[in-house]
Specification:
CATH superfamily of one domain: ATP-grasp fold, B domain
CATH class of one domain: Alpha Beta
Structural class: alpha+beta
Number of strands: 15
CATH architecture of one domain: 2-Layer Sandwich
Distance between the termini: 27 Å
Radius of gyration: 19 Å
Length: about 300
C-alpha cells in the first residue's frame, strides 16, 4: 500500500495536509476542525470535501479579480505519480502552484462581530481603527475594514496595523493586497446577499508571490475562513444564525474555553458531543448548498 506521506514531504496544518511535489503542491483538506487555536480531537464528517469544493467554486469566480494558485481539483488531472496512492483524496484535494507566501493574514470585516465586537465594546475601536459611537453587535459597519494580522505557524495570530504590514511585506505589495482584499470581499458579499440569502460578515485571505506576481492562495470564502450569517431573520443587536463553525465555538465557550490555555488537545473537555458534530456538519452542508446550488458533494 503506497501512501502520500511515504512518498512526498508533508506539512500538516490545523486542517490541511500539504505535500511538496517539487514545482507544485498538493493540498488535502481533512475533516479536522480547529477553534480557539485548538485542533479538536473529533472530526466533522465530509468537512474537508465541503471546504475544498467551496474554495474551488470561488477561485473560479474571482480569477478575473486576481489570479490564484489553483491548477485542478480533479484527481485524474494530477501527475501520474499520484494516481496510485491509497489516500482518499477525491473531492478533498487540489493541485496548486507553489507560491512564496506573504506572512500576513488579510482580514476584511463588513459587520461588527466576534473579537471585533468585544474590542469595540471596550475601546470603541477594531484593531486600532476608531469607529462611531453607538454601534450594536452584528451591525453593518459604515465601510468595510481591512485588518491584517501576522500569520503564526504556531499559536495565535496577532493583529497589526496596515503600516506594520507594509514594513513586513513592502509598501507597494501591501497596498495591492489591501485593495484586492476589499474588492474580493465586496464582490462575494454582494453575490451572497442578493442571490444566496447569506450575509458575509467577515472573511480572511492569504496571498503569495508566483513568477513575481501577487496571487491568491490557501482558501477563499469557506465556512472555515468566513463568518456566514443567514440573511433571513437578520437583526442587528444580537448574535446571528450562522453557517460556519460558530456553533463549535459557542459550545466551547459554554465549557469555559475561549483561548489557548494549558489544555492538552486530547483532553476530554475538548471532545465534541455527537449532536454538536452532526449539527456542525449540517451547518457546513447548508453553506455548501446555498453557495454552490448543489444538493450534495
Amino acid at each position: 500500500m503506497v501512501r502520500l506521506r511515504d512518498r512526498f514531504p508533508l506539512k500538516q496544518g490545523k486542517v490541511r495536509d500539504i505535500y511538496d511535489l517539487g514545482n507544485e503542491l498538493l493540498i488535502i483538506a481533512s475533516d479536522r476542525i480547529s477553534a480557539f487555536d485548538y485542533i479538536l480531537p473529533d472530526e466533522i464528517p465530509d468537512k474537508g470535501k465541503i471546504l475544498n469544493q467551496i474554495a474551488a467554486y470561488w477561485f473560479d469566480r474571482t480569477a478575473s479579480i486576481i489570479p490564484n494558485h489553483l491548477i485542478s481539483t480533479e484527481v485524474k488531472d494530477f501527475p501520474g505519480n499520484l494516481q496510485d496512492v491509497s489516500d482518499d483524496i477525491e473531492k478533498r484535494s487540489m493541485l496548486v502552484r507553489k507560491a512564496n507566501k506573504f506572512p500576513i493574514e488579510c482580514i476584511v470585516r463588513g459587520y461588527i462581530a466576534g473579537s471585533g465586537w468585544k474590542n469595540y465594546k471596550k475601546t470603541g475601536t477594531i484593531c486600532g481603527i476608531k469607529l462611531p459611537e453607538g454601534l450594536v453587535e452584528s451591525e453593518k459597519l459604515p465601510e468595510s475594514l481591512f485588518t491584517p494580522s501576522t500569520k503564526a505557524e504556531n499559536g495565535h495570530d496577532e493583529n497589526i496595523s496596515f503600516e506594520e504590514m507594509a514594513r513586513l511585506v513592502d509598501p507597494i505589495s501591501a497596498e495591492k493586497i489591501k485593495e484586492v482584499s476589499l474588492r474580493l470581499y465586496s464582490f462575494a458579499h454582494d453575490i451572497l446577499m442578493e442571490k444566496k440569502g447569506i450575509i458575509l460578515a467577515d472573511t480572511k485571505f492569504e496571498f503569495g508571490l508566483y513568477n513575481n506576481e501577487i496571487i491568491l492562495i490557501d482558501e477563499i470564502f469557506t465556512p472555515d475562513s468566513s463568518r456566514f450569517w443567514d440573511n433571513e431573520g437578520f437583526e442587528p443587536g444580537k448574535s446571528q444564525t450562522s453557517f460556519d463553525k460558530q456553533f463549535v465555538r459557542d459550545y466551547l465557550i459554554s465549557k469555559g474555553i475561549q483561548h489557548k490555555e494549558n489544555i492538552a488537545e486530547d483532553d476530554e473537555i475538548l471532545r465534541l458531543p455527537e449532536y454538536i458534530i452532526q449539527k456542525t456538519r449540517e451547518k457546513y452542508s447548508q453553506a455548501y448548498t446555498k453557495i454552490t446550488g448543489k444538493l450534495s458533494i
